[in-house]
Amino acid sequence: MDPFLKKLLGEMLLPAPEDVNAYFGDQIAIFIPKVNIYLESTHVHGGYQFLVPLTTSFPFQVEKKTIILEQNKFFPFNPEQIHRAANRNMDLRFLAIFIDKEYLHETSNSVYGQRNILFENSNIELDANTQNLIRMFIEESRNCQAGHDFILQSLSLNITINLLRQVKSNLPSVTGRRYTENQSIHKAVDFLWECYKEDFSLHDVARVANLSANQLIRSFKQETGKTPFDYLLDIKIQRAKEMLRLKQRTVTEICYACGFNNLSHFTTVFKRKVGVSPSKYRQFILGIL
């Protein structure tokens, strides 16, 4: 197998040419099976994979968790993340995008100043522009006209940046206080940022905003897209991720420093929001994996 593909695919065997359409750039490969593919064994990849079920939704075993991959939605797998089809009797039709790990890290570092990206294992519907870029990549790779290498390089960069923008990851989702023209919600946001470590109720936040609890929930969601509780959790998890990138505190210490009452709850929330446990996240960020 080509060294680039071996690095990209990891343990996965390259399907026979008669079974799959393959489209290559220098840093990205896209595979679309011509027939149903039977993904029997547990495996990992050296690069990032984005899988799109084409004909039906199907269950996948991702590490120790079973997740339904939704039809026509993108699902990310991180490098070295163990996965397999949960139903061993299911034949699959899908589109698979593979991106070289170092290329994605370098791109992310240039754009966001952060290298080690960990995508959340959840389904996402990409915008029409990104889907069109993928179609253009396939056409350019298939036709191989003059200058196609340059166009594929440009499309690879565009696709990678769009995935970084749209797919949930450890890139900060709450990068700062998102102020609004609504002064009541402005006060509530300030309160959540300043008091996220402390114990308080919804009524305490409503009192600061000079609103009833129901008014606060409704207005807060209109302004931020989240409930006050979800926004608070995002702040706590963002602070936890910042602390986990350092070695100064244990996971338990970070748990309490971010306002969680017990380690089990912290781990559950962190894994739901980020896709992996705090310890696994720290290992990934520090380059242990």
TrEMBL record:
Database matches in InterPro entries: AraC_XylS_family_regulators, Homeodomain-like_sf, HTH-like, HTH_AraC, HTH_AraC-typ_CS, Tscrpt_reg_AraC-type_HTH
Domain of life: Bacteria
Keywords: Activator, DNA-binding, Transcription, Transcription regulation
Recorded GO MF terms: DNA-binding transcription factor activity; sequence-specific DNA binding
Domain HTH araC/xylS-type stretches: 186-284
The protein, known as: Helix-turn-helix domain-containing protein
UniProt xrefs under SUPFAM superfamilies: Homeodomain-like, Regulatory protein AraC
Keyword DNA-binding: yes
SMART domains referenced in this protein's UniProt entry, alphabetically: HTH_ARAC (SM00342)
